[in-house]
Amino acid sequence: MPGTIRIFADSTCDLPSSWIEEYNIGIVPLYVVFGEQSLRDGVDITPEQLYAKVDQTGSLPKTAAPSPSDFIAAFTPSIEQGEDILFLSISSELSSTYQNALIAAGELPEGRVTVFDSRNLSSGIGLLVMKAVHAAREGSSIPQIVKLLSSIVNEVECEFVVDTLDYLYKGGRCSGMQNIIGSLLKIRPVIKVMDGSMTPAYKVRGKKEKALDQMIQNALAQVDNMDNDLIVVVHTMAEEEARFLQKQLQEKTGAKQVSISTAGCVICSHCGPQTVGLMYTKKPS
């Protein structure tokens, strides 16, 4: 009789808290670091508190992966209860979270923890987590779930529009000159996740609505290839725009579910307030 499976993810998966509770998903938080102070994402600090702190100090926090001992502490109670663990991490290109989870898995009883690299971030991970959760509930084994995830990991479409270049600039992800020019010309970069990394996909000049509309058009162009189980709109303090996107996508894609999720502190500290993202999965090719 195979043991029960429990799905874990890190705090960058940006899943609604109601889903985390309903499906008993284990969450291992990353850290947001202000000077000497390390705060657990979503546990010790909220996005609102993060932005207030950035305004107050004028500097951005750094972010850090959970340590192997954090993972051991998170996984051990489940293992002791007889559960086998499948952990989905933020892309190994973006963080040492995956590496540290592997180290922890090696310290724990053999075969009890499987670590999967999502090659993604934010709700792009969340989409894979939900696939894993539903597969586990339908009786799939961990190797079967890993096989399923491996077939769709490169099919996750993850695109988001950044409202201000300040955070990318302060975080060293865009040069000072670009920041000034971008602010003057109101250029809004749209970032995509490609090959596990964040890549500027294109720029939209003018109002943010133009960028949101472009994201909708890009998604609609893929509607025949889209896995229509779930589309996620994720945002940082941009609820109105997220609802606009949700309504448009609900009407035009026929997806079973278009959900809104709010980004956690790690995503917020890299992208800044008023960021809006759109994530869905294409059918395996």
Automatic annotation (TrEMBL):
<protein>
    <submittedName>
        <fullName>Fatty acid-binding protein DegV</fullName>
    </submittedName>
</protein>
<dbReference type="Pfam" id="PF02645">
    <property type="entry name" value="DegV"/>
</dbReference>
<dbReference type="GO" id="GO:0008289">
    <property type="term" value="F:lipid binding"/>
</dbReference>
<dbReference type="InterPro" id="IPR050270">
    <property type="entry name" value="DegV_domain_contain"/>
</dbReference>
<dbReference type="InterPro" id="IPR003797">
    <property type="entry name" value="DegV"/>
</dbReference>
<keyword id="KW-0446">Lipid-binding</keyword>
<dbReference type="InterPro" id="IPR043168">
    <property type="entry name" value="DegV_C"/>
</dbReference>
